Each structure stands twice: as structure tokens, then as C-alpha cells.
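Aim 2, interim progress. The first record below pairs a target sequence with its C-alpha cells.
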Amino acid sequence: MMKKTLRTGKIFTVNFLIVISLFSCKTQDATLTTKVDATYALSQQNVDAVIWTATSAEMHYASIQAYDLAILKLKTKISNDYSKPIAVVMDLDETVIDNSPYMFQQIAKGKTFDGDSWYEWCMEASAGILPGAFDFIKKCEELDIEVFYISNRGIETLSGTLDNLQKLDIKTDAAHVLLKEGISDKTDRRNLVLETNSTVLYIGDNLRDFSEIYKDRKANYGKSVVDEELSNLRENFILIPNPMYGEWRKPINMGQNPNSDSEKVEFIENFIKSKN
């Protein structure tokens, strides 16, 4: 009787462990599926923005128009007296360099931005240039104006970034390409340029390419700060449209940093509901 009880106990224990193991596998599969579905959903939400950026005549003209305005501003500013050599500070991604092919690549895979694929893309050095950017940079060369590129690409991509710029026939060097080393705040790098030059114009796809005061988007999505600084912006900053990504997405996350794609999807859904 005792042997039978022990045998029965062993059978029960084994069966229980099998059930737990199967349940655990199913739970892991469900979690994985949810994660994959969320990432796919995010990638597909960006389709229209990427297509508009890459193919629309409107974006093509908007970029040319922005750089035409930049040239007009330069011609006005160079007539002033400066104590230091004149410089222009430009962002790189979606300001000079067109990364829409990378965005298409990620969408096709059902994926969003990730560090590994981004590094590979940067080192591939095959990105094109935004309309108007080349003519503007050449105009700076003609006017003997130094161009500094301040980008939040990681410093580990410097060689690939320089290679890409050279392929686009943009003459520059490591001293003029200031990439991110630690923090995304560009203030120190902008100030570094000001130590040797008088910066007369900033160009970027994000207001933080001009000043860190635009990081705070709590009040009216940051529009209130724009209204307060409108005169300064009009005089010194040229904005290139970028609906694919940027600081403008921060209010959607209610000031929080989502830890996963699932959380990002949840924030977007809640944001949309709040607008109904």
C-alpha cells in the first residue's frame, strides 16, 4: 500500500511539473506574441509619415524652401560685424542626411528603431541627402562660412558618418562633426562652437537643435514656448519637417519613458482616446 501511494505521488508530481512547464511555455509564447504584435503595430503606424517624407512633392519642396530661406538669412547676416569667424550649425539626420530608406527597411521587417540596426545603417554610409541641403552647404563654402554638424548619432558611428558625408560630396572633418558622447543635450557642443566662432544660424528638424528650452512639452505640447520665443526662432533657426520621429512624440507618453513597445502602443491608444 505504501509503495502504491509513493508511486502515485511520484506520478502526480511529474504530471504537475509537466502542466506547470506547459503553462510556462504558453505564457512565454503569449508574452512574446504580445511584444511582437506591439512592435509591428508601432512600425505600421509610421508608414504614412515615412512615405510622405520619402516620396511626396510637398516634402521635396518644403526642404528646398527651408534651405532657400536659410540662404536669404545668411546673405543678410554676413553684412554684420562679428568678432569671430562666422559659422552655421546644422543637425544631420533628417536635416542633411535622409534616413527614410532605413525607416522603410525597419517597417518591412515589422520592426521599429533599434540601436543595432541603426549602427549598421550609419556604418553602411549609404544615406542620401535632403533637397536643398547640398546647395546651402556649397553656398556656405562660397561665403567662407564654417559649417559644424551637431548630431545625436553616437560617437561610435563617426567613421561611418564622415564616410557618408564624403560620398555626398560634403567636405568636412571630425573637428566639425560633433556627435553624442553620453547625453543628448546639445548645449555643450553648441557652446564649444561659440568658443571659436560666431554662430549666425541653426538648422534642424527638432526645436532642441536650437535650444534645450524646447525639451519641455508639457504646456500646450511646447507651443507656448514657441510663441514666447517666436522672434528669436524666426531670426536664428530654420526648421526642416520630420513627421517620422522626434521630440513632438513626448506629450503622447504623458511625460514618461515607455519601457517597451507595448507600453508605447498603450500610451498612443490612451492619447487618442483623450482627444475624443
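The second target in this work package is listed in the same format:
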Amino acid sequence: MAFHFDEVHVYEGQHLVCQEKSVPKALGVGPQKVNHTSYIQGNTQIGKVDAFSSANATLMVGREDTIGTDRSVYVNGNQYINGDSGTSNALYVTGGGSVDSLYVDGDVYVTGRVDCGNKGRLASRFSSADARPKPFDLKHPSREGYRLRYACIEGPEVGVYVRGRVKDEKVIDLPKYWKDLVHEDSITVQLQPIGAHQDIIVEKWDDEKIYLQSKEEVPINCFYHVYAERKDINPLITEYEGETCDDYPDPNHHSIPDDERNYKDPNYATEQNTKTK
């Protein structure tokens, strides 16, 4: 049985296309029913008749073919999407090659992990940054209207350092955690005497202390820098064959998800970069 109408007006009540007594609770029934509402129990298609070849979803919206609007859906108001396990993506967006699949005019806040696949303009920015100095820029602390720009020191190792002053002592105590952090045989020491020549030398060292020696009866008074290479992660592979940083031999630095990365992966371990013993 079929009916044909030019127009159907439901002034009060509900427009229902469903089995008898299948009115959804959200729309209410009886005295509690919400007027001017609609419910369709099965799949619904809107737009061009041939926009879809099968029932892909409960609601399918395609471009209309009456007045030629350029969008299938235009929403004025807030949206909420509550995904389930029906598919692997709660929201899947794709677009033509000549347009951005997703364009956001405003800030984006994400509580979970973001994987951009290192593609497009963002990847280009990253690759450029890899080839440039690593600067930081801040308001000048003492000159109004000026800024201050410094850059990180670069070197062929993952290094750490401590610095300070030793006076009237012959031992530099290293941080207690250094024994678990650095290679003992990568340690180097720089000493800068204060006030007078003292002929200070490094007598010996380990991963806990630096032992100093000076002229007899001359108290030690100097600044020091102690450098070492970290051992809790694999050494840098400083030279490798490739065209981009994605060709770095250890995939833990680029292609493996953050929560699965192992920077001590034995499959990519090499000789430490600095040895001093």
C-alpha cells in the first residue's frame, strides 16, 4: 500500500515511521510526548537518489540535486559524537585531492595521542627544523623592546654535564644517580683555576667522584665542568644513509608509537660515541 501527498503537516504530535508501540523513550509517549518530533525506525537516505549504492549507515546524507547546494550537511550548533565498537574509527573523514579533508578554524584540544603520519606541510616544517639550529626565544630580561635568542649546543652524543666550584677540597662529588645514568669511561673534566696557578690535574675518576691533585701546599680553588654520555639509551648513530630523518636506522625515533618505543632496543645498540678510558 502506498500514499502520495504533496505536503504533510503535523501541527502537534509526532511523525512516526516505525512498528506499532516502537516510539523511542527519548521522544516521550502519551502526555509526555515531545511535539513536532520525528522518528524513523529504519535506514534513512537524504539527497540524490544514487548517492549511495547500499545501506551504509542508519542515516545517509548525500548532495541534493534540486537547487545545487555545495554541502551535504551544514550544522549551526554544537555537536557531540559518542562512538562505539561498530567500526575502528568513531569519526572518519576523507576528501578529494584538491581540498583539505579536515579544516579547523580555531584551537584544537586533544586528550589522547595524535598521529599525523609525518605528512604534508607539518612534515615539511619538521624536516626544516631538523636542519636548522634549535633556538629558544624570549623577552629580553634587561632591554625594553628587545628579545633574546639562544640556541642549543649540538654534538655527536647524548651527553649530560654538571658544573660548579671546588675549594679547599681534592674531590668533586658527582650526582649519586650518575652511576646509573652515564658511561664511566665517557667522563671528561675541565678545570679553571681561580686566583693563581695551581697545577691542578685529574688524578683519577669513577662514576661517583673526580679526584684532583695540585702543587704541594697550594689549596685547590677552581671551577669545573664534568661531561659524560648517557648509557640508559642507545648511542646516537651519527652518520647513516638516507634522504630524510625518517631513514634513521632505529625506528624507535620515528615510526613506532610513543607508548611502544624502546630507546634501549638491543637490535639498534651501537658502540658508545665517546670513550675516555
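The mean pLDDT is 87. This observation will shape the mutagenesis plan for the next reporting period.
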